[in-house]
Automatic annotation (TrEMBL):
InterPro entries: QcrA_N, Rieske_2Fe-2S, Rieske_2Fe-2S_sf, Rieske_Fe-S_prot. It comes from Acidithrix ferrooxidans. The keyword Membrane applies. This is Cytochrome bc1 complex Rieske iron-sulfur subunit. GO terms for cellular component: plasma membrane. Belongs to the Rieske iron-sulfur protein family. Residues 220-284 form the Rieske domain. The keyword Metal-binding applies.
Length: 301
């Protein structure tokens, strides 16, 4: 290896040694400070994002994160790594043994120059790794809160008071035969997944399916209003045919047989809510729905 204009080669370590030892120390400190700033800014960015985010603060911290890595790497590369340029003469293709040895020594010196600064290397690795890690945050947060049991249960519970949209409790005389209304549990009036359609099909107890002998007292039947196809509210009741119609894709549910779908894309019956009247004639739920309401990603019996 030799320098341009056929000067004798200047080993990297010699070139680097031209930087005074005190200056080298200062530059190492500068590089370390840059990486530390980057790490702290990344942590700050993560905390800010987790707490809800603030665009200006996030922008400033992102600037500090990337700026710290950038300035640190540039300073390290410019002042701490041996500098060239070195040009190999081309007049001889086959290199001499001495030249090969010089090359190997040169490479060795270069790697030692880097290897002497493991602390800076670790700091740089930490700042880059942390920055990579923080990029996962938007993906994780965008997934939203954990649904817990929200997909499989509703606010309906054993004994829930059945109320109308105005919060008034439903009694045995609330509906005439052929009447229909939307009801909710008293603790979730207006709730999207607890909305239930209440129909009165007669005056005598009505059994829609075996095992549901007590679910329809005095001809009152209650079904989830959330369509099992795509979740639209099933709000149209045709008294003549005793069918519920979903207006979104025209699914028809036969009320008397447990809201089984008889037309349209809905794949499953509307879940039925078991209800009863207390001694004062007020309506309550015997229990919650025995299956998830609405369209399902699961298979139901
Ligand atoms: S959402 Fe009810 S039929 Fe499509």
């Amino acid at each position: 290896m030799s320098k341009v204009d056929n000067e004798s080669p200047t080993p990297p370590e010699v070139a680097n040694s031209q930087v005074p030892e005190r200056s080298t120390r200062s530059i190492e400190i500068l590089v370390a400070v840059c990486f530390v700033i980057s790490v702290l800014a990344t942590v700050g960015l993560a905390v800010t994002y987790w707490l809800g985010g603030q665009p200006q603060v996030e922008g400033g911290l992102l600037f500090a994160t990337l700026g710290g890595i950038g300035v640190g790497m540039v300073a390290w590369g410019k002042y701490l790594v041996p500098q060239g340029p070195y040009v190999q003469e081309r007049d001889t293709i086959k290199s001499e043994i001495l030249e090969r040895q010089a090359l190997l020594e040169s490479l060795d010196r270069g790697s030692k120059a880097v290897g002497r600064r493991p602390f800076l290397g670790k700091l740089m690795g930490a700042s880059i790794a942390l920055f990579g890690l923080i990029n996962l945050f938007p993906f994780l947060r965008s997934l939203g809160p954990v649904p817990k049991k929200a997909l499989t249960t509703t606010p309906w519970r054993k004994g829930s008071a059945v109320v109308g949209p105005d919060g008034k409790q439903v009694t045995s005389s609330t509906l005439e035969v052929g009447g229909v209304m939307t009801v909710f549990p008293s603790n979730d009036v207006g709730g999207a997944i607890s909305q239930t359609v209440l129909i009165r099909v007669g005056t005598a107890n009505w059994t829609t399916r075996p095992g549901r002998e007590t679910w329809g007292p005095l001809g009152y039947l209650a079904f989830s209003k959330v369509c099992t196809h795509a979740g639209c509210p099933v709000g149209l009741y045709e008294e003549l045919t005793q069918q519920l119609l979903c207006p979104c894709h025209q699914s028809l549910f036969d009320v008397l047989t447990g809201a089984t779908p008889v037309f349209g894309p809905a794949p499953r019956p509307l879940p039925q809510l078991p209800i009863y009247f207390d001694s004062n004639g007020n309506m309550h739920a015997q229990a919650g729905y025995d299956q998830p309401v609405g369209p399902g990603y699961w298979e139901r019996p």
